[in-house]
Each structure stands twice: as C-alpha cells, then as structure tokens.
Design brief:
Blueprint lengths: L4 H11 L5 H17 L6 H14 L8 H18 L4 H14 L5 H18 L2 H31 L6 H9 L2 H23 L9 H14 L10 H15 L4 H6 L3 H15 L6 H17 L4 H14 L3 H9 L5
Length: about 325
C-alpha cells in the first residue's frame, strides 16, 4: 500500500466523479481505510488532494455509514498534520464541513459524530469549535430527556398497574436504558480523555472550563430523569475521575483552580459509594481515586482516610482492604 498509495488517490479521484452513488460511497470508504493504514510520507500537495476527495464525499446528504467517512477525515487530518505543514484552508474546510454535518436533522447520525468531533476539537484546540461541541453534547443529552418524557406520557395513558420499584428495575435493565447510559458514558469519557491529553497546552481551550463541564456531566449521570443509572455509571464516574487527575500535580491543580473540583468529585462519588449494596469493582475504583487525590493534594489525607475507613467498616471485603493498604490505610 505504501508504494502505490499515490496511485490509489488518483484512481479514487477519477471514480468519485461517477454518477453511481454506491461507487462514490465505496471509493470514499476505501480511501479512509487506506489513509488509516498508510505509514509512508506524502507531500503536502498530495495530502490536500486526499482532503479534497473526502470533503467532496461529505458534501452530500446523510447516508448509512457516512459517519465513518467523516471520522476518517478527522483521523486523516490528525495523522497527516504531523507529517506536513498543511495550508490552514484545509483545517478551515474541515471546520465548515463538521459544522454543517452536526446541524443535520438526522439526530441519530449527528450523535454518531460527537466522539470523533470531540477528538478534532481538542486536536485543533479551538475555542469556537469547543463552544459548538458543548452545544451539541448538551443538545444530545437534552434529547434523551425529551424521549423519556414522551415515554412517560405514553405509559400514563396506558394506566400501568406495575409497582414503581418493579417498573424502575425493568427500565434499568432494558436495552434502551443501557444504550442511553452507555451513550452518555462514552461521550463523557471521550471529553475526559482529550482533556487528559491537553494538560500541557497553554493557549486555546481553557482547562478549568472543560473540567467544570465534565464534572457537571459526571453528576448529570445520576441526576437525569431520562436514565435509570446502574453500576455502569458508578464505575464510569470513578474511571473518569482517575483519568482526569492522573496527569496532574499539586502546582497545576492550584494554578488552574482545580483542587476544589476534584475534592467535590470525591465527596459526590463517595456519597453514593458508601453503602454495602454498591458492587465491589466500583468501590475499588473509589479507593484508587482516593489514593490519587491524597497523593496530589496532601491536605485531603484526613478526609479520604476517614471516608475509606468508614467504607471498610460497612464492607469487610478482603479485596477492598488490600486496596486500602496500597494507599496507606490500615483497616
């Protein structure tokens, strides 16, 4: 592939002019796949030709699988930007294409673009794109609420006689609820991952603004009427907290006004984690986050030690005790 990739680009360019949609679609997807595995070096002119082809493929209506091409544009931009100094017009064209695609009425399609768009926004480190991202995420989360309100109205017209607790149990285990929960978790983790990787970038998107946004989304997993949260959200809460705090030191936390947010993360998470009914894997993550918090912010030692001791008083698991010992707490 490395040897013939320039010829592949030319061949795809010819067939992208076909009047047959299936041929154009196949060519666009094939070029994305080729870009993904290509490990050679292209000159800037050839790279720009790749984006001309892919952006043309994205200029049409929504179609099944189009999100893979849009994602391919983003991945290719991240990859080839490292190889060559691309003209800023390439980035501007991609910005414009994404703005258009994210404004489409096909909401199922738009939701599939949020995670790749998140990667692109933080790669570009652009405040205006970040504003668009927050709007798109909030809109998608709000739509989950609207869908749930409609379902509740439909149920009330049916005069369900099931006890409320039984209904909640059935709802939390339904595939629809699991899909909604996983969707939210995926978006939150995606933003947290990108925030983790932009810690040392000084200009552009403000770290503390994104941190506050992610924390509000984390709490929103448990304060949202549209989803019956399960252990998945509880586990994701602490996994996200660990992702966020891991690369930081005390100086960074202080200079970016982040200390209080991470302390609040602990208090909020510990509050739902302290009962015996919470599954062990969630409590393990809770203890590990507590250990990181103590290491980064020594002033939290007394609070974290006390809380985890209380956790162990309720749950006598030997696994939890071993985790506590690792962070300097003797049961």
């Amino acid at each position: 592939l490395n040897l013939c990739f320039p010829e592949i680009i030319d061949l795809v360019n010819v067939h992208m002019k076909s009047n047959i949609f299936s041929i154009r679609k196949t060519c666009a997807v094939a070029l994305c796949d080729a870009c993904k595995v290509y490990s050679g070096v292209l000159n800037a002119k050839k790279i720009e030709k790749v984006f001309d082809i892919l952006l043309e493929a994205c200029s049409s209506r929504s179609w099944d699988g189009k999100e893979f091409v849009v994602s391919g544009v983003i991945n290719s931009f991240k990859k080839f930007s490292v190889q060559a100094s691309l003209d800023e017009t390439v980035g501007n064209k991609i910005d414009k294409m994404l703005q258009i695609e994210l404004s489409k009425k096909n909401r199922t399609y738009v939701k599939k673009l949020i995670q790749p768009f998140t990667e692109y926004v933080f790669f570009r480190n652009d405040e205006k794109l970040y504003e668009k991202l927050t709007h798109v995420i909030e809109e998608a989360f709000n739509e989950l609420e609207i869908e749930d309100d409609k379902e509740d109205r439909d149920d009330s017209r049916g005069h369900s006689k099931k006890p409320k607790l039984v209904e909640d149990v059935h709802k939390s285990s339904s595939q629809e609820n699991i899909d909604k929960e996983n969707f939210k978790i995926g978006i939150i983790k995606s933003v947290a991952k990108e925030l983790h990787e932009m810690v040392h970038k000084e200009n552009g998107i403000k770290y503390e603004d994104v941190l506050r946004l992610v924390y509000s989304f984390m709490k929103g997993m448990f304060e949202n009427s549209s989803i019956e949260y399960t252990w998945r959200s509880q586990l994701a809460y602490f996994e996200t907290a660990i992702t966020l705090i891991s690369p930081l030191d005390a100086n960074f936390l202080t200079s970016h006004n982040a200390s209080d947010i991470f302390i609040d993360m602990w208090k909020y998470g510990y509050d739902f984690c302290k009962t015996k009914e919470i599954i062990e894997s969630v409590k393990i993550k809770c203890i590990r986050y507590g250990g990181l918090l103590k290491a980064k912010l020594p002033d939290t030692n007394i609070m974290v030690n006390f809380d985890i001791s209380e956790l162990l008083r309720v749950d006598h698991s030997s696994v939890l005790k071993a985790e506590a010992v690792k962070i300097g707490i003797s049961p």
